[in-house]
Specification:
Blueprint: H1 3-11, E1 16-18, H2 58-70, E2 74-78, H3 81-92, E3 99-103, H4 108-116, E4 120-124, H5 139-148, E5 152-158, E6 165-166, H6 169-178, E7 182-186, E8 210-214, H7 215-218, E9 226-230, H8 237-247, H9 254-289, E10 296-297, E11 313-314, E12 318-322, H10 330-339, E13 343-345, E14 347-349, E15 352-356, H11 363-378, E16 396-397, H12 403-408, E17 411-414, E18 428-430, E19 436-438, H13 446-457, E20 462-464, E21 473-476
Parallel strand pairs: 1-13, 3-4, 3-5, 5-7, 7-8
Antiparallel strand pairs: 2-9, 4-16, 6-11, 8-9, 10-12, 12-15, 14-15, 17-21, 18-19, 18-20
Helix pairs in contact: 2-9, 3-4, 3-8, 5-6, 9-11
Bound molecules: pyridoxal-5'-phosphate.
Pyridoxal-5'-phosphate binds next to helix 3.
């Protein structure tokens, strides 16, 4: 059986996707002809993603429409995900050796970009919410970082986070700009925000200079599609274009580019009705989840946003089901959802499971999730099972070396227990969500190692750049 046969068999099964991509394999909503029938790249007559102004202008027109809908000055499609768009933005918005303030709950692609751009990062740690997830970064924290490091030139935040927590971008942007620095927001999980006022505001409208969004995560668009928005004069759009050309294939798939265009037109023509129906599904879900006795869902059902004073705002499209205080773990819950109810979720923590939703979800999909959660909940008991987290308090830190300096050192592999106090040469993270527990250049602590061990024991996928973990860690010689 070929890989294709295996994928088709999976796609045709009754497994329902509460995960990315945001099109949810909903072929009634999104369709194209057989991709082999029109797969091409920049040949004469077919425009050029790398030079949209020079040719027919189809892509330029589509990007202009996107800029209008997202309220940016310029918007650029890319087919290398937010990963590529973040690398391009960071290269375009910085100069080597500049100081950059980075929320420490950022995605691994940002740390890789910082190493490539040879930047000198200062890490801002968010506070933890009582549910063990990162709360918002507060404007006061950013102010404090500038007081300590006035030479910060670029600030990089993730908002919303993987779990749906937003920061006060407006408040933060005004502090960043008053220090003559620029603000880049990783809004990989927020491409849908602009299209309905009942959702929190997008960073494209609240003062960020650069914003990166994965179209494929929360909108109905094919995997790999993303968009990079230039929102102010603090970024030169020509530098952005040059850097996109650096990180992106020279043969971009027009199947993907057409998917971006289809998605944007769908939002323009039918966004209103699609979001009305989506909102209705989320409201019904909320009502149903009020009946849970053991599980609880972040900012849904009986849990309201006001219970989380550390959250500036929350995206209700994210459904984080907490198993805390019950006799089931996150991995056990996602296994039951998969094996008994044929519901595949997005991400599993030790004490929670994340279901991702979008306008492409169906009433049937939501009804299946509601039924499954209520049935599972009725079989659970209360049990103390608090999980610790490696982020303990809100602080500002730096590595012993910058990621770039660490990568220039010679590598040495050591057993994890012998790595305490050494400088990490590699990053280690659970994927998803791809937030490094350990960043290249940081001093390795006992707490980080014990957290990594716990995740591994709980069956989560722990990835180290050298692929050596759990047998060894790569440290600087
Ligand atoms: C917060 C965040 N930023 C960036 C990315 C990278 O996005 P992409 O998969 O579109 O490259 C991810 C991926 O999950 C993410 O969660």
């Amino acid at each position: 059986m070929t890989l294709y046969d295996k994928y088709i068999r999976y796609a045709e099964s009754d497994m329902y996707p509460f995960h990315m991509p945001g099109h949810k394999r909903n072929t009634e909503l999104m369709h194209m002809m057989n991709p082999y029938g029109f797969d091409a790249t920049e040949i004469d007559g077919l425009d050029d993603l790398h030079r949209p102004d020079d040719k027919e202008g189809w892509i330029r027109d589509s990007e202009k429409l996107a800029a209008q809908l997202f309220h940016s000055k310029y918007s650029f499609y890319t087919v290398n995900g937010s990963t590529g768009a973040l690398i391009a933005s960071i290269l375009a918005m910085s100069k080597p050796h500049q100081k950059v303030l980075v929320a420490r709950n950022c995605h691994i692609s940002i740390y890789n970009a910082i190493a490539l751009a040879r930047l000198d990062p200062v890490y801002l740690w968010p506070k933890m919410d009582k549910d063990g997830i990162c709360a918002s970064i507060k404007p006061e924290q950013v102010q404090q970082a500038f007081a300590q490091y006035p030479d910060i030139r670029l600030v990089i935040l993730v908002s919303p986070t993987y779990e749906g927590v937003l920061s006060d971008i407006k408040g933060i942007a005004s502090i960043v700009h008053s220090h003559n620095a620029s603000l880049l927001v990783d809004e990989a999980h927020g491409a849908h925000l602009t299209f309905d006022q009942r959702f929190p505001e997008s960073a494209t409208e609240t003062g960020a200079d650069g914003v990166v969004q994965s179209l494929h995560k929360t909108l109905p668009c094919l995997t790999q599609t993303a968009i990079l928005h230039v929102c102010s004069d603090r970024i030169d759009p020509n530098s952005v274009k040059r850097m996109i050309a650096v990180e992106e294939t020279s043969s971009p798939s027009y199947v993907l580019v057409c998917s971006c265009d289809q998605c944007i037109h769908l939002m323009q023509d039918h966004g209103r009705e699609l979001f009305d129906a989506y909102w209705q599904r989320l409201n019904n879900f909320d009502q149903q989840m009020k009946n849970l006795q053991n599980l609880h869902i972040l900012c849904h059902g009986n849990d309201i946003k006001e219970n989380h004073p550390g959250f500036y705002d929350f995206d209700p499209g994210k459904i984080l089901i907490s198993t805390k205080g019950t006799n089931i773990t996150g991995p056990e819950l996602s296994k039951t959802l998969r094996e008994t109810y044929h519901l595949e979720t997005e991400y599993t923590r030790m004490d929670a499971v994340l279901a991702m939703t979008s306008v492409a979800d169906t009433d049937t999909g939501f009804a299946r999730l509601e039924k499954a959660l209520l049935e599972i909940d009725a079989r659970l008991n209360k049990q103390e099972n608090m999980q610790e987290s490696f982020i303990t308090d809100s602080t500002i830190t730096t590595g012993a070396l910058s990621p770039c300096q660490a990568l220039e050192k010679e590598a040495e592999n050591v057993e994890p227990d012998k790595a305490i106090g050494r400088i990490a040469r590699e990053a280690i993270f659970a994927y998803p969500p791809g937030i490094p527990i350990l960043v290249s250049g940081e001093n390795i602590t006992r707490e980080q190692l014990s957290y990594l061990k716990k995740m591994q024991e709980a069956g989560l996928q722990v990835v180290s750049a050298s692929h050596g973990f759990p047998h060894h860690l790569e440290v600087c010689k």
